[in-house]
Amino acid sequence: MSNWVRICHLAELLPGECQTGWDGDTPIAVFNVDGEVYAIEDICTHDGSELTGGPVVGYEVECPRHGARFDVRTGAALCPRPTSRPRSFRSRSRTAGSTRAMIAE
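^ that's the sequence the OP posted. Answer follows.
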């Protein structure tokens, strides 16, 4: 992915919340942790489930299906079950006119 992809307005992503967007057929989960925004591929590498339905505690998201945990900053697996990590993406907020938009690469 070489272009920035708009996921949501920053106002739609309050601290502690997450949103899912798409770049073609790649689901991207964007998390707001204490005002900082992080983006990883929205897939549990343990079983292919979406991560955005699971609880987020600090920088960890837990797969709602089997409990695998991942770091939202890097996609790193935080338990032994996943054999790989979801891809992580650079994320940023920017002002477009008077609208702040969340976009992930």
